[in-house]
Amino acid sequence: MRLTMYRVLETSTGKKRGMSLVFNVVLVTIITLNAVAIVLHTVESINRKHAVLFRDFEFFSVMFFTVEYLLRVWVSVENEKYRNPVWGRLRYMVSMSAIIDLLAIFPFYFSLFATDLAIVRILRIFRIFRLFRISRYSHAVRLIQRVVADRKEELVLSVMFILFMLIIVSSIMYYVEHPVQPRTFSSIPATMWWGVNAMATVGYGDIHPITPLGKLLAGIAAMMGIMLFALPTGILTSGFLEHLRLQKGARNYCPHCGKEI
Amino acid sequence: MRLTMYRVLETSTGKKRGMSLVFNVVLVTIITLNAVAIVLHTVESINRKHAVLFRDFEFFSVMFFTVEYLLRVWVSVENEKYRNPVWGRLRYMVSMSAIIDLLAIFPFYFSLFATDLAIVRILRIFRIFRLFRISRYSHAVRLIQRVVADRKEELVLSVMFILFMLIIVSSIMYYVEHPVQPRTFSSIPATMWWGVNAMATVGYGDIHPITPLGKLLAGIAAMMGIMLFALPTGILTSGFLEHLRLQKGARNYCPHCGKEI
Amino acid sequence: MRLTMYRVLETSTGKKRGMSLVFNVVLVTIITLNAVAIVLHTVESINRKHAVLFRDFEFFSVMFFTVEYLLRVWVSVENEKYRNPVWGRLRYMVSMSAIIDLLAIFPFYFSLFATDLAIVRILRIFRIFRLFRISRYSHAVRLIQRVVADRKEELVLSVMFILFMLIIVSSIMYYVEHPVQPRTFSSIPATMWWGVNAMATVGYGDIHPITPLGKLLAGIAAMMGIMLFALPTGILTSGFLEHLRLQKGARNYCPHCGKEI
Amino acid sequence: MRLTMYRVLETSTGKKRGMSLVFNVVLVTIITLNAVAIVLHTVESINRKHAVLFRDFEFFSVMFFTVEYLLRVWVSVENEKYRNPVWGRLRYMVSMSAIIDLLAIFPFYFSLFATDLAIVRILRIFRIFRLFRISRYSHAVRLIQRVVADRKEELVLSVMFILFMLIIVSSIMYYVEHPVQPRTFSSIPATMWWGVNAMATVGYGDIHPITPLGKLLAGIAAMMGIMLFALPTGILTSGFLEHLRLQKGARNYCPHCGKEI
């Protein structure tokens, strides 16, 4: 029976595939409804009308997630990786996936004793990650994961380089604009708020240079920003292409001699 | 005669190619003029001057489109897919293309009895899609269609991932900025308006964080947005490349027997 | 002597290469100075101080460009394409390059009789295109030209598709926002000003939706804009890759059998 | 002993690899702390509280960097390139890396005699480039460097082309908007501030056209900007792909003899 439950909860292929799909659809629906509830809960007018509904749904969700969590811990020993009844279960409980599940229910029990911690409620949204485990998208998820993992070094470097240029540009801008606009460009950290929005080409308009030199620098920063952000785009694209080639590379056979090429 | 009409209306190759081209140019011209009329119709000063012209052109367009629609239904049985005189025609009438054509003329007849429904007039613009059927662009349209269809899973996933990050970022931002700006960041849905414009780097400037923590989060969101939007770009580019390679793939040789494959 | 002059003026390789380079550097310098003069001329404080200098440089430039134009017409018959003394020269005079050269000097002579036409002075900047003919960059220019020419159909289609979506989105937005903001969203053309800035993620902040439905639509428009603008990026990238492969493809030889591959 | 010191200071592989790593971590930590200090130093409230700490850390950093600089000059002769005791050291001192190191400590000694030059303090941040020498990232750095070097011509051309279009668009916009908004679009250089932010899609909102013709031009400029900035993205991506293919190129076979090439 534990094996059956394991198949329903954790696998999306093989036996009990239908049951597993049904369970996953129910789970994803409840998680999505939770996300909707968390978002709508903050709209004053809606919250006032449906306060009881929100509280009841909150209670129901936490109960459902608690039972699910306990079941997952119970059946975890069916997994090759967590064979040992005690240590295996403990090792499952410190896995990324299990911690996210626990964080989603923990705040509720905590709030029974302490005051409400609004920010921890967001943790429940992270459970939406489960959505990506549905088999239909698992292929695409794995492709994206592998490409990002493969190009990790180049991507980290791009981000580091962007951060580095951000500090340089903001520092120079501070010394250029501070004497003229001492309140908006009050410090380098304040100027970095301008810097990040200039290089990412957001431009809210609450802070921008007014001196000719500052404007010249801002123009260079905007162009540089686009060039710098072209790096991760190029890196990701080349990664996608290589993976797609590898996938199809193994499947090519010569129609004349029949050998793999 | 029905076959001749079919060739003029529906095909852009083979016999009656010249007639078909002439008809398509006339059709596209009328559709384009309709788009122009719909757009200019809303400019007060132009509408006041040429009110009669707009009304007459509206009447003429609807008549033209009605005759065209009836003809298309009549000749549809010439198409392999809609052979049956009754069921074939009905099946043609529920095809995407025919529904759009009907929606373009329906509002006019409806408004004879009911009040004017301004928004449905926009449906007429959708007929501009016919523009893409002109043979000159049909190759490029098909290429783009195939690439998008081929990469559908990855593209849907990218959009889902962007939406997911949007909810997470907006939820956190709400709890950070709400206490300081209770009116602008009034709820999570209101904060999502900030979120989408920050991640897409639009930045209208009507809503932006003012706390240091909020600004840090906004900077991270802007960078993350660019990275996330690099995913669909990379996916589309790799898709284009693969399709172009398949088309020109004739240059591959087997390493074992040396023959072209 | 006409041949020598032709080599100096028109070719950047072969005999008289040194002379040609010197002449090109002088020409590009004068064109660049013209661009600087045209730009700085509009700064009130600079114009007042150096009014005489600007006028003299204007006169000198036009004289130089006039002599150069006449010489180019004179030597044009040395070119294979324009052999005939009369018709060849006339055909050269209606070539793109010659027309730009003429447009750069024409306004000056015209203004001796008529009033000053400020906007035509900009035509002189177009001569900066000559800059791209310097041999160092000619390879890169040709690469970019070929890629754009090769992908012309797809690029035109992308632009058409962007324009089409712009009309659709702006029309819907007009009917959503007009009742609430009748002055900013006064007509569909006015709303298209919002539309183009939303889809290109500029966001000046002078016009943006305030209704929830309008904000939802604006969010979709921003995301759609990024996706749509990813199309030309992907198309251009794939074009670059293919050309680079073709260039290198012809140069590959097998080290074992020596045959081209 | 000089050789040992050389290995610790300059190499990150071979003998003394462990020592070298420890030294590099210490160096990068001090440089990073310097960057943090330079940034936080400008925040009034923090500077007032920790003025002594900032001064002491400044003194310590300069001492550390001075000793490090002198050691590097001393051991530079161990490098193949700088064999000669006198000329080799001098040649090392005028290398890019050594000049940056000197510029990082020079301002301090200069300020003992002269007034404080705030802007030169930024030079110290440039030392953060040393961060990129840590072996973990050296592969990725070299890849990015090679790609940029390989596509230098095309990238320079793209930037030139963007600048050229910027001048053209701004000049036309000036003549269109100047009569209506003489204060914001006061001159072509002032209009170029609009131009760069429009083409890079920043859009601060402090300057934007209000005439219909100006708005049309701004819409075209925004679209053109995205297309133009797609060029460097495409160029970089194709560069990345080619380099990665060269690295993995071992999988190519000759179609004639079937051997690997």
UniProtKB/TrEMBL annotation, chains A, B, C, D:
GO CC, any one term: voltage-gated potassium channel complex
Domain of life: Bacteria
Ion transport domain mapped to chain residues: 22-240
Location in the cell: Membrane
TM region(s), chain numbering: 21-40, 92-112, 155-176, 216-241
GO terms of biological process kind: action potential
Coiled coil regions, renumbered to chain: none
Main location: membrane
Gene3D superfamilies: 1.10.287.70, Voltage-gated potassium channels. Chain C
MF terms (GO), sorted A to Z: voltage-gated potassium channel activity
Keyword Transport: yes
Keyword terms of this UniProt record: Ion channel, Ion transport, Membrane, Potassium, Potassium channel, Potassium transport, Transmembrane, Transmembrane helix, Transport, Voltage-gated channel
SUPFAM superfamilies: Voltage-gated potassium channels (SSF81324)
Topology of the protein relative to the lipid bilayer: Multi-pass membrane protein
PANTHER family in the record: POTASSIUM VOLTAGE-GATED CHANNEL PROTEIN SHAB, VOLTAGE-GATED POTASSIUM CHANNEL
Name of protein: Ion transporter
UniProt source species: Rudanella paleaurantiibacter
